[in-house]
Specification:
heterotrimer; A mainly beta (144); B mainly beta (399); C alpha+beta (413); A: 144 residues; mainly beta; OB fold (Dihydrolipoamide Acetyltransferase, E2P); 2 helices; 13% helix; globular; disordered N terminus; C: 413 residues; alpha+beta; Beta-Lactamase; Heat Shock Protein 90; 3 domains; 5-stranded mixed β-sheet; 12 strands; rod-shaped
């Protein structure tokens, strides 16, 4: 009877839960596929990446040596705080996902930009804008 | 004119106990929903807290709590700070704010952000004239004209009500900025600001009444030194101030771990004059007489950012400004007018170190200011040391 | 900035806060480890099992794998959830934190459960195998928030996390208050030291000034004294009395200036072996010479001889100044003196039975130029200076109506 009492609320809850944002199977921070890429920004865009979350700053990066193109997902646009431009240098450490339709996607964990190192996620991929070192007091409201 | 009765109440209430429920709500609210809670602790040591000739030193300890939760495209944020002055504890103050914002990307290149927030600053005992509550509306449109150029337009509206109604104001500011990145790794940025500030309850009285009011105001000022001065000049001019400012910035990437920038700013007062008899500024404590609208002149500066070993960010900067304050006369130490508009020449050196650790971030910064003024009371030197620790905690998503 | 300031105002509070932070995490983690093992793990494993059953039903119904997680991803306390096939390829996943799915598939054999740290707190990871239709194997990977579970276990109170944070903040405030008190005390001491230094500087200025004046006055005064001398020898008889008076006054001025100069001069000691009895006798006889009417004003019963090395003239001067102060405290009863040997040396007590010294006066009694009677007000200051120069100490206690007790401590015995 106690077991049923535990299960019942769970089942009731499960039926009430709303559907989550369907994500690309590989589109998560995969600690096994971490690489470091250095290149030049070719394109910049603001794109929604996760449901019920602000648009992300996404840049297209051309690797300096191999000329490979990566789509780098940085962070919510309000968190990053710096204005990026085409032609600027970027060094990204992140997890790479190869997709058939969108090419190589790099989810950034740490970037070096204009002489500064900015941590976007912890080593396991936990986003800094949801917790962790509170750099420059970004938390108070959002900015673009 | 009382546009916002709630703010009137806030501005008129002297006891901070009445804000305790609000503070408690802010602290406990995260328990009711989820989001991110940020905590920070700052310690300041200043050897000239009132930023005048008398050089009163003090140590300030500040505890800051802030919370935000995203409900895209909206987010809610709230915060509470308490700053304690060890040598002038009666000037310790609370800062509370609550707001919501909206962020929307029209397309891949353009985003819009707007926020509406209420802020209150309440001093513990002294300086009740300076208690204030304000309502702020801020909106920004950012767009990439092409991938190397960004255009930004911002509008800001602020209504502020003080314990002393002579300071109440309504201000508008419109900012337009454009920046462009060049292949030489140089970024050039140009920013134009137009602002207007209306004093809502300007003082209109005879000279005798102005003097009387001056002594009433005088109780709150010159804490680091005494000098009798009328608060408000007897004429009814000085109802508003209008200014325009132009800034130019050039930033250069030196190599992977360093960057340098040079900034130049010129500001003009188009119309109006400061209606006060004196302009004062306090370290960390907002003073209603000294803000972006009160001066005209120019400033130039440079900053260097370096990444030194162990991932420590080091910033060094220097800034020089020459500011004159329309409508403000330079006074002698005993209060007699010197017949010239007050003009300040300021040198500011600052340096800052910051490091992120896995759970928190630490910073320490030092700045030195030398302010040479035609008003001898505001001819001062100051050294300010500040350190802080900050971290954020995720409040689990509970449903 | 002084090193002490830096230590007190910056280093100490931050180290304290970091310690609180890590202590809280440690206590939390060890507490969780105690409570999680067994109870919570079992409960969460059971929940995971149930979820697996639900998902397997959906798969059996023919739902595509990338849609089956939809109903479960918002589950209470579930931070992330993923569905993997038999080869451990991820078919579908969902997370409450953008892109966060901490799963390393490098290790062929993953344990069934393990705990990880994150900025969102401790997370219990479960890797649950299950089967669906046609014996197809799958894995369900879940990350459960242990913070939440702890809250449920501890109080069934949704706001417990905020409460813990509130307690942490309060601890931080209490700690900060402690630091402020230390800070305030330190500042008070610094202010005292500053005040003392300013006072010393002030006295030094006065000394320099008065020394200068004394010097300037002394010369013409000497000439005046010689002049009077001459006038006395060669002057008319009619003015002899006036000349004598004049000479007397000049001598008085000279003595006063000498006193000043003595007061300003650094004390040079010429120590010799003495006894306390000898010193008190010397002071008493000087007192008798100055106040002949108060002959029996001092009472002293010597015991065993107490020896010390001191400058006779200076110590007698000091004792004289104190005794003079005591006998002037209007009383019929004599001033009592007694001396004894103590561990620290020799203690001499001088007790009068006058009206006592008011508290406002007693604070300044050893200050130079402080007097409630006539005179320069340097007697007791000089006495203290002399005694301290001998590495001794002098204190005064007094209650209104109970006279004053001067206690002199000197090395020796």
């Amino acid at each position: 009877m106690t077991r049923l009492r535990k299960i019942l609320p769970l089942l009731v809850f499960l039926s009430a839960a709303h559907p989550a944002f369907p994500q690309h199977p590989g589109h998560f921070y995969n600690v096994d596929t971490e690489i470091k890429v250095e290149g030049i920004i070719k394109d910049i865009s603001l794109e929604p990446r996760y449901k019920d979350r602000s648009p992300f700053l996404v840049v297209t990066l051309e690797e300096r040596l191999s000329k490979d193109i990566y789509t780098v997902e940085i962070s919510p646009s309000w968190f990053f705080g710096e204005d990026v431009h085409k032609g600027e240098n970027l060094e990204v450490t992140g997890s790479v996902v190869s997709t058939a339709d969108r090419g190589k996607i790099l989810i950034a964990r740490q970037i070096r930009f204009r002489g500064e190192t900015i941590d976007l996620r912890d080593r396991q991929g936990f986003p800094s804008w949801r917790g962790g070192p509170d750099r420059k007091g970004r938390r108070r409201g959002r900015r673009i | 004119m009382t546009l916002f009765p709630l703010l009137d109440y806030a501005g008129n209430t002297m006891s901070t106990w009445k804000y305790l429920p609000a503070a408690l709500f802010i602290i406990l609210a995260p328990g009711l929903t989820a989001g991110t809670l940020s905590l920070a602790f700052y310690q300041h040591a200043a050897d000239n807290i009132f930023q005048n000739r008398s050089a009163v030193s003090d140590g300030i300890s500040a505890l800051s709590l802030s919370w935000d939760k995203e409900f895209s495209p909206f987010s809610l944020f709230a915060g509470a700070d308490y700053s304690y002055l060890s040598r002038n504890p009666s000037l310790s103050f609370f800062n509370l704010d609550l707001g919501a914002d909206y962020l929307h990307a029209f397309n891949k290149k353009t985003a819009f952000h707007a926020s509406l927030s209420g802020t209150g600053i309440f001093f513990r005992e002294d300086a009740e004239d300076y208690n204030h509550a304000s309502l702020l509306f801020n909106s920004t449109l950012k767009t990439y004209l092409n991938d190397a150029s960004i255009l930004r337009a911002n509008y800001r509206l602020e209504y502020r009500k003080y314990g002393y109604s002579l300071f109440d104001f309504l201000s508008h500011a419109l900012t337009l900025s454009f920046d462009r990145f060049f292949r030489t790794k140089t970024t050039l940025k140009c920013e134009l600001v137009w602002g207007n500030k209306d004093f809502l309850h300007p003082f209109e009285a005879s000279a005798a009444e102005a003097d009387a009011a001056g002594y009433q105001y005088g109780k709150g000022r010159g804490r680091g030194g005494t000098r009798p001065a009328p608060a408000w000049r007897s004429q009814s001019q000085g109802r508003s101030l209008r200014m325009v400012s132009l800034s130019l910035l050039a930033a250069q990437n030196l190599w992977d771990r360093a960057g340098v920038n040079i900034l130049f700013q010129r500001q003009w007062t188009i119309s109006g004059e400061n209606p006060f008899a004196s302009i004062e500024e306090f370290y960390m404590i907002e003073n209603p007489t000294y803000d972006a609208f009160s001066w005209e002149g120019w400033a130039a500066g440079s900053n260097l950012t370096l990444e030194i070993p162990w991932d420590i960010e080091w910033k060094v900067g220097y800034n020089y400004s020459e500011r004159s304050f329309p409508g403000i006369e330079s006074l002698n130490l005993d209060g007699t007018s010197l017949g010239v508009v007050r003009n300040d020449k300021r040198h500011r050196w600052e340096t800052r170190l910051e490091k992120n650790f896995p759970g928190f971030s630490l910073f320490i910064s030092f700045s030195r200011i030398r302010n040479a003024s035609t008003d001898l009371f505001f001819d001062w030197d100051g050294r300010f040391l500040q350190a802080g620790i900050a971290w954020s905690l995720t409040l689990g998503e509970k449903r | 900035m002084k090193r002490k300031d830096f230590f007190l105002f910056f280093f100490l509070p931050f180290v304290g806060l970091i310690l609180i932070f890590f202590l809280a995490s440690y206590l939390n983690s060890s507490r969780i480890q105690k409570q999680v093992k067994g109870v919570i793990e079992e409960q969460l494993r059971a929940s995971a099992g149930i979820l697996a059953v639900g998902i397997s039903h959906l798969l059996e119904e023919g739902r595509p794998p990338d849609t089956v997680l939809g109903p479960y991803s918002g589950g209470s306390g579930i931070y992330y959830i993923a569905l993997l096939d038999a080869e451990k390829n991820i078919l579908s996943w969902s997370s409450q934190f953008e892109g966060y799915l901490p799963l390393s598939l490098k290790d062929k054999d993953l344990p069934e459960s393990w705990t990880i740290d994150s900025p969102a707190g401790k997370i219990l990871n479960l890797f649950v195998p299950f089967s669906a239709a046609e014996s197809q194997s799958y894995f369900l990977y879940l990350g459960y928030s242990l913070e939440d579970s702890l809250g449920v276990i501890a109080a069934r109170f949704r706001k417990s996390l905020a409460l813990i944070l509130g307690i942490l903040a309060l601890a931080g405030l209490v700690f900060s208050r402690g630091v402020f008190l230390i800070q305030a005390r330190y500042l008070a001491k610094t202010r005292e030291a500053d005040a003392e230094r300013l006072q010393k500087e002030h006295y030094r200025e006065i000394s320099a000034f008065t020394a200068g004046i004394a010097h300037e006055i002394k010369n013409p005064l000497n000439s005046l004294a010689l002049l009077f001398e001459l006038m006395q020898k060669k002057g008319a008889a009619a003015v002899a009395e006036d000349v004598a008076l004049g000479k007397n006054e000049v001598q008085k001025i000279s003595r006063t200036i000498d006193q000043f100069s003595d007061f300003l001069k650094p004390l040079r000691l010429t120590k010799e072996p003495l006894t306390v009895e000898d010193l008190i006798a010397g002071a008493s006889s000087s007192l008798a010479a100055e106040f002949p009417e108060k002959k029996a004003a001092v009472e002293y019963s010597p015991g065993a001889p107490l020896r010390l090395a001191a400058d006779r003239q200076l110590i007698v001067q000091a004792l004289f100044n104190i005794l003079k102060n005591a006998v002037q405290a209007e009383s019929r009863n004599p001033v009592r003196i007694d001396a004894e040997k103590t561990k620290k040396g020799i203690k001499i007590r001088i007790q009068d039975s006058g009206p006592g010294i008011p508290p406002a006066v007693i604070e300044h009694i050893f200050d130079p130029f402080f007097t409630t009677k006539t005179g320069m007000g340097v007697g007791l200051y000089l006495a203290k200076k002399i005694i301290e120069r001998h590495e001794g100490k002098v204190t005064v206690e007094s209650r209104p109506g109970q006279g004053a007790l001067f206690t002199i401590q000197l090395p020796g015995g």
